[in-house]
Amino acid sequence: MKLLFCTDGSDWTQEAASPACLLASLTADAVDVLIVGSPGESAEAIQKTIAPPFEALREQGISIDFIWREGKLKTQAVKEAKARSYDMLAIGSRGRRGLRRLLLGSVAAYVIRHASISTLILKGQPCAFKRFLICSAVGPTSEKTIHFAGRLARSMGASVTLIHVMSQIPLTDEAEMSHLTAEAQDLIENRSREGLHLSRMLDLLAEEGTKARAIVRHGLVIDEIIDEAQEEAFDLLVLGAHTTPGLRSRLIDDLAEQALLQANMPVLVVR
Amino acid sequence: MAKKEVGKDTRPGWKRIGLGILAVVLFILSVEVMKSGAGGLTPLLRDHLTVDNAIDSLGFGWLMAYGILSGSPVAAVALALLSSGGLTSAQTFTMITGSRLGASFVVLGLGFIYVLRGHERKTALTTGVLSFLVTVPIQLLTVPVGLTLLRLEWAGTIKWTWLVGFSTTVNSVTDPLTTLLKSYLPEWILFVLGVGMISLSFRWFDQALPDFELKGTGLTQIPRLVYRPTIMFLLGMVATTLTLSVSISLGLLVPLSTRGYIRRENLIPYILGANITTMIDTLVAGILLGDPHAMTIVVAHMIGAVIVSLPIVILFYRAYERIISRLQIWITQRKRNFAIFLGALFFIPIVLLLT
After folding, report:
1. Are A236 and A266 in contact (CB under 8 A)?
2. How far, in whole angstroms, is CA A171 from its chain's centroid?
3. B119 vs A173: CB contact, 8 Å cut-off?
4. B39 to chain A, closest Cα gap in Å
5. Residues 6+ apart with CB under 8 A from A250
6. Which of B250, B261, B265 lies nearest to residue A220, judging by beta carbons?
């Protein structure tokens, strides 16, 4: 796997270097470190502070390259990810919330929205990436997410929990409420729509060499995902990216961005 | 032989059009009949029901909507009472608010009937409880906002001059009938007759509408299931404008629900949007009455609802959704909780009326 790590030398992007190196040491063959600065700023000075953990990777036989660009971190990161063939982009998160986020925006959210490859947002306490929580939505994009996260989990020796949130409101007399309150195992045994989906996703994970368990929660989608991730102290939250094209993308909500905002752990958005 | 789809209205197109025309004619007549009889109700409101202030009229509108299982006729009644001098502007405004609160009980009431017929409690009641929980805070917050709007000078600057001409034309057609009825019936009976006619006209209008579906809009084809709150808010507004009925516009979502696509995340902003444009029929009643004051009150009500709803949808939606969703789960979780909720639905408007 080839990883692109992006930094502008600020504290919050440098803090992400250690977890990115830990992940790279277990999964990557090559890492490019994109350093973005203002015109006139010294590339060497930033590289000097950011380089040590990456130099340690080089000693493990992983190819390390440093790339210097001038401009804004968010746009340069997206541009670089598109320009070369990377498997994953990793970047830190400043963690702006509320009015500051509304007014100043978020670099991580911009990268999630615009990057053409899977993006890992490194935030929260340092972790060992040993427990993955993968969010599953019934749809074609889920399979891609499962394959990518499954491969990553296998190479890191991580355990995987697959979560599906049931939040439907029955508007019809014929609606089967039992499905809306059932546990994962019951849904799988009853071969309901969601049960068949979970069963298929578990099979895909098994094909990737990762043993996983499925759970179902009931309530508001993003709240339940975040609650599960925090209650069970997962190391990584994995979601599929917002891939609906054109005008339709304006109609649907971006769960990845909401998860990024609320989660206090690394978030991987698979594309 | 083709199978008849269960629950699907197979009424031919020409019958629907005919019923629709009849509904509109009956609606126009009923507004005029109510207007003629409203004067006779003033002593009843003031002396017997003691509807003296805006809180009384809130409770009155709320309970009246329970009584006739619909909010729209009650809102039209409020306007007719305003025109006859039976209610003040503030009382009319809060009676309209009460009518909306009572109307959201209808969806819940239907669910309750399903429970009595042996259906699973949560399934039958969830939508109704949610509809009520979304409507109540919005409508109650609309009261201070709308009343403030009415006190501001802009309300007086709207002249609605075209209304007088329109109303005169309508009156010239309906006057012979109302004069005839007036000569035989006492005013209060005339008013009750008008309420009955307007309720029937809404029922006919509901039956005349074709079976709308969201197929073809592209919404059902979207693979990811959580639509943006703003989109669902606008959709709720548009669907309710087109159908003039919250229960029908909610019914539009049934095909999505059967496919497991309707989530709490979708339904809450949809109901918020529907709450604004549900006043369209009241606006039409105001036009028919030809009373600029009535029109101003309805417009203030709609603007008030927009002022209250928009910040929720744009700025605080997640927090609002969380609170409403938790309340809904608490209410439908146990029989005792639901009984407390149901008790409050009757206790509060009765207390309001008696204060």
Report:
1. yes
2. 34
3. yes
4. 42
5. B228, B231
6. B265
Q: Chain B contacts of A249, Cβ < 8 Å?
A: none
| Cα–Cα distance for residue pair B289/B168, rounded to 1 Å | 9
Report the residue of chain A nearest B225, measured CA to CA. Answer: A252
CA dist B199 and B32 (Å) reads 14
Other Cβ atoms within 10 Å of A43 Cβ, number? 16
| pTM for the predicted model, two decimal places | 0.78
Which of A169, A219, A244 is nearest residue B262 as measured by Cβ atoms? Answer: A169
List of chain A residues whose C-beta atoms are within 8 Å of the C-beta of residue B266: 169
pLDDT tens column, B95-142: 999 999 988 877 777 777 666 666 666 666 777 888 889 989 999 999
Interface of A with B (CB under 8 A): 137-141, 167-175, 177, 181, 193-194, 219-223, 242, 244, 248, 250-253, 255, 258
Q: pLDDT, tens digit, for every residue of B316-345?
A: 888 898 899 889 889 988 889 988 998 999
Query: Is A170 close to B257, i.e. CB distance below 8 A?
Result: yes
B231 contacts in A (CB within 8 Å)?
Answer: 250-251
